[in-house]
Amino acid sequence: MVSTKVILVLGARPQFIKSAPVIRAILTKHAHIKLSIVHSGQHYDPQMSGIFLRELKIPKPVANLEAGSGSHAAQTATIMRRLEDTILKINPDVVLVPGDTNTTLAASLTAAKLGVPVAHIEAGLRSGDFTMPEEINRKLTDHCSTLLFAPTRTAVRNLRREGLRRGVHLTGDTMVDALRQALPFVKRTEDLTLAGFELQAGSYVMVTLHRPSNVDDAPRLRQIVLALRKVARKLPVIFPVHPRTKHRLANLKATQLSHHAALSITSPRGYIETLALLKNASCLLTDSGGMQKEAFLLHIPCITLRPNTEWPETLTAKANRLITNPESIPSTVLACAIDRALKQRIRRLSNPFGPGNASLKIAEILQENF
C-alpha cells in the first residue's frame, strides 16, 4: 500500500492539545499514514509551547518556522512564506490544520494555493463576531478545506448554511479525547497541585484571560483586576497569566492592584496542571474558547467575559454564562461558585461533543480519502 503523506501544522497551545490524540491515533492505528509535524512558532514561550509538546508526547516537528510575534498580517505572512518551502519539499497528500489561529489560516491558504487539499479539525465553529481574529481565521479556513471535521451538530449546521456540504464529517471533538486520555494523570497529581497553591478542592475560583478585548484596553484590564480583588475577599482566586496578559499587567503597573493574599497570579501551567486546577475549582472565569468547553466537560460552572461564544452548546442550563461588564464579575462569579444546585444540573447534562473517539474517526477518514 502506498503511504499517505500528511503534514500537520501546529503553532499554539490549544492546537497542541486538540492534535495530540489525532497524532496518537495515526501513529498507533495507521502505519500507512506518514505524518510530518510542522511547528509554526506562533507560540514560542517555553511555557506555552515546549512544555505542551513534552507533556502531550508530540513527536519532534520536522520544521520550526519560528514565526514569532507581530501583527496578524505579519505573522500570517511569515508563516505562509516559510511553510511554502516545507510543503514543496514534502509534497504531502493533505495538510491537516486544527483550530482557528493565525497558524491555521496561514497553513490552509498556503496549501490551497499550492493545490494541496486541506483538512480542518474543529470546522464549522461560529461566534458571529468578526472583531475576533479567530472568527475570520476559522471561516476562511473552512472555505479553503476539502475535508471538514465538525465537532458538533451545530457546527455541521453552520457549514451547511454557508453552502459547505461536501467533505463534511461529524466526528466529535478531539479535545474530549485529549481530556479523557489526560484524566488518569490529573487524578494522580491533583492533590500535589492543590497543595502547591495552598488551595482546597471546590473552594476557589480559577481565572484565565488573554483576548485583546479584555487585556489590551488598560482601563478595562484595571477594572477586571479590581473585580478579581473583590472576588478574592470571599474566595481564593488562582490566575495563571498568559504571556500577553502578563505584559499588559506590567505596563499597567498592576502589581499594586493585584497585591492580595488570596489572589494568586502565577505563570502559565502545563496541560495536566491546568486540568487539575480547573477540575477542582468552584467556578471558572475565562475568555478562552477551549477552557469554556473543558469546564463543561468537567462539570465546572463557567463565566465567559465575552459577548458571544463559538460553543453555544455550553450555554445550556447556565453551565456557561456570558458577561461583558467587569463590574458584574464579583456578584456573578460568587453566585455561580456557591450554587450547588447548578453543579448538579451541569453534571446531568448530555455531552454534545462526542464520546471520545473523534481522533480515530479523523485518522480513518484521512486514510480513506487519500
Short synopsis of the structure:
The chain is 49% helix and 15% strand. With 370 residues, the chain is of the alpha/beta class.
Set out the fold topology.
Elements: E1 4-10, H1 13-29, E2 33-39, H2 50-55, E3 63-64, H3 72-90, E4 94-98, H4 102-113, E5 118-121, H5 133-144, E6 147-150, H6 153-161, E7 168-170, H7 174-196, E8 205-208, H8 212-215, H9 218-232, E9 237-240, H10 243-252, H11 255-258, E10 263-266, H12 271-279, E11 283-286, H13 289-297, E12 302-304, E13 320-322, H14 329-338, H15 340-348, H16 358-369
Parallel strand pairs: 1-2, 1-4, 2-3, 4-5, 5-6, 6-7, 8-9, 8-11, 9-10, 11-12, 12-13
Q: What's the helix-strand series?
A: EHEHEHEHEHEHEHEHHEHHEHEHEEHHH
CATH homologous group name of the largest domain = Glycogen Phosphorylase B
Overall residue-averaged pLDDT value: 93
* Main sheet properties: 7 strands, parallel
CATH topology of the largest domain: Rossmann fold
Report the helical percentage: 40-55%
Strand content: 5-15%
End-to-end separation in angstroms reads: 12 Å
What is the domain total for the residues?
2
Give the helix tally.
16
